[in-house]
Fold N-acetylgalactosaminide beta-1,3-galactosyltransferase.
Amino acid sequence: MRSIRLRGVLLALAAFTLALASFSIYKNYSPAPFFPENGQTISSSQKMGHEGADQIIPVDESEVLRLRKKVRVFVWVMTSPKSKQRARAVNTTWATRADRDLLVYMSSEADPSLPAVGLSVKEGRNHLTAKTMQAFDYVYKHYFHKADYFMKADDDTYVIMENLRYFLSFFDTKEPFFTGRHFKPEVKQGFNSGGAGYVLSKEALARLAARPKDPPLCKEDGKGEDVEIARCLEKLEVRILNSTDSRGRSRFHTHEPVKHVIKGVSWMHNYDANVVRVVS
């Protein structure tokens, strides 16, 4: 009975810890450069942002409202006709803290109840790149001037919008960058995990939408959308912004809290662009 209670306490603590979005299983280390491998210097304001954005501050609704107006984050959620129940769960949980006029679901079938946009794509992992490319094109066409940042999330992703806005408030959306859980294989500068969700700056989205299509500069369909999006953005000179805080703690997580905090994710040691150390 004691072990069951202890496990319950640990799970509660894990969820609470990740909700504060900085304290996790990773020990301190020197974080990666702000823009890895691009050789540019960081302004003093960017340095302050990168180090200051990890501070835990008391919840203040007036500050929440201020950031909501200052940092406009558009979120599109990837879903499908078979997983619309998960999308409805998003609608009743963290989406209530997003801006409703800046949130859309993307599927292969339109569904006004979500609302979901019906893209001209086939469902399945082999077509995730097409769904993502078309979704970003749609967002650029209809919402580009309404938001500062543009996030791609899955229908099983959970986003703490207040923390996301606070983190992004330290950076310049006119700079060409995107951020998320930074993995190092496949692409020279790495890629941001699709499962953890990733965010494009306004300039990054503009460059993606303006990519050459005849002949195509980027792969427009296939599996591994997070890798293909990163590969495309690299060709467009969009850099990855390091999302870890000044102590090397992660803000974007690929799995549910119990795996990150208690069990650990072994394969991540070989994928993560930053040092991952599990506390024993």
In short: The two ends are 23 Å apart (CA to CA). The beta strands are 73-78, 103-107, 116-118, 149-154, 177-180, 182-183, 191-192, 198-201, 239-241. The chain has ten helices and nine strands.
